[in-house]
Amino acid sequence: MDAEAVFFTPWDPYVNMLTKARKLYEAANLFSVIEKGDLVAVKLHMGELGNPNYIRPFFIKQIIDLIKARGAKPFLTDTSTYYPLERSNAFDYMETALANGFGFAPLIIADGLNSENAIPVPSPDPILPEVEVAGVIHQVQAMIVVSHLKGHPLTGYGGAIKNLGMGCVSKKSKLAQHRVVDIEVDEELCQACGSCVEACWFGLPRIENYKATMADHPQCMRCLNCSSACPAGAIRLVGRSRLGMAVAVAAAAVLSTFSEHKVAYINFAHDMSTFCDCVPFRGKPVGPDLGIFAAFSPLSIDAAGLQRIDYQHLDQLHDTDCLIQPRYLARLNQAGSLEPKVVEI
Hints:
Layout: E1 5-10, H1 17-28, E2 39-43, H2 57-68, E3 73-78, H3 90-99, E4 107-109, E5 118-122, E6 130-134, H4 135-139, E7 142-148, E8 150-152, E9 156-158, H5 160-165, H6 171-178, E10 182-185, H7 195-199, E11 206-208, E12 211-213, H8 225-229, E13 235-238, H9 241-255, E14 263-269, E15 291-295, H10 298-308, H11 311-318, H12 324-331, E16 341-344
Parallel strand pairs: 1-16, 2-3, 2-7, 3-4, 7-14
Antiparallel strand pairs: 1-15, 5-6, 8-9, 10-13, 11-12, 14-15
């Protein structure tokens, strides 16, 4: 298994992409990470309710069927969100997954009903003291990480690394990653209008002495809701690049729980938008559909995708650096390459 190689099939609107996808997986020998009898987590984001940009369920069913053909036991999985939308606990997430078309395979929310099922593992970098890996992810023998390549307002982009680092951990570890970023209020600009209070999912900001205060409440996840809602631009996040570092560190911690050569990756670069699949709307498009990538390294597969999209546009739009995640993962001595060999199928 060559961690520096990435297999790629271009998107063609006039052919059956299921056929192309199967040829891609066969050329990459992608499912060689799976042995007969393995419990196999197919880790993916099944879409926030109202956002149409998640990976089409028929592509995932094909992956499930190919894993079954190897005599293994695949199931769909993801973890609950920290923020309180339609996937913040296992019950709501499963209802959302069914509504979005993912009722064709067993579905297990990996961190439990309310994110109580998690195993702490050592962090490979001091930016995070420890990482709580979702219990189901910690227990399986193999995993296929299926990601939708798209923009992200805090990390610049979301792909395989973020699917591992943010998507395979508990709510506690999701919050810990977000809180490596700081938040500040410019009191001279603040108009005490209360827009930040209304925008916050948790109602955390307060108006005191005719000014907004962003006291360091332990629930604050450093999202963009309050700063985006502020008409005066008085609220800003500081050190946003640190989140990409934390995501890479968490991804490395998740991978440390697997035996060597037991995880493979598929990135779908279609229906790409400026926002992630976590919001209940699609965001603006980011270029044309590119195709499907397959690899044995999250570092290599994300680097290959970033080579082909206008990530500088995402950098500028989201005031961050998309390359932080793969660069920091490389710094942690994870297998793969920032300049992978791309084999077109």
